[in-house]
């Protein structure tokens, strides 16, 4: 019993330390100016406080953003070569399609996915900022990028994308609208990217999409890869995604 209790105690401590490593915005100096409001507010007032914290990023050109995305943030060195793994099909792309440090690969093979589609940008906010914001850009196989288009994310009753068994497009399981379902390992990343985008650019997430995103946010929590990517983007762009730094913030916002 003593050994069992000891192991349980160590597990509790470990889980606490893992959570507290990134869950307290008070430990992140970036939020200091707006921290009192962030800590006490909820709902729309919390969204306003978060907006005040994250709105001041460096606006990149779209070419700069893609060079960072493919040629730095997602670039992995394998022996004497390089690869980028796309997030929709989970396939590796190498120098044969133009992958390398600071390089933009062949867009017919590997493309830049705007998790928040360009056709649904907020016309009252800077279009260039929305287009090049690294917090919602991901490398995707071109066929999957085209298949997703501008439709909402969701859980679907449908078929796998052509030449891409990890993602599906079909009827949403709740109300039958056309939807796109990414791999389970990417679902939480999508949710937090869209929560960020909604707050940063003051644009609502449709209810039929938000219900899935909230579930994905819980089922696919922040991991070390997402935190590493987040820190790289912060160094490049100068602003942070608060829903990665403190995932519990989403529970204090009724509607995105």
Please explain how this structure is put together.
The protein is an alpha+beta fold. It has a domain at 2-58 and 112-118 and 141-252. It is 44% helix and 17% strand. It is built from ten helices and nine strands. The strands form three sheets. It has a four-stranded mixed beta sheet. Strands 1-2-3 form a three-stranded antiparallel beta sheet. Strand 8 (164-172) and strand 9 (178-181) form a beta hairpin. The radius of gyration is 19 Å and the shape is globular. Mean pLDDT is 91; it is low at 1-22.
Low-confidence segments, given as residue ranges, are 1-22
Terminal residue distance: 47 Å
Give the spatial strand order of the biggest sheet: 6-9-8-7
- Number of helices, counting only DSSP H or I runs of 4 residues or more: 10
Major pleated sheet: 4 strands, mixed
What is the overall pLDDT average? Answer: 91
β-strand percent reads 15-25%
SSE succession: HHHHEEEEHEHEEEEHHHH
Assign the structural class, choosing from mainly alpha, mainly beta, alpha/beta, alpha+beta, or little secondary structure. alpha+beta
Number of strand segments: 9
Q: How would you describe the shape?
A: globular
* CA-atom Rg in angstroms: 19 Å
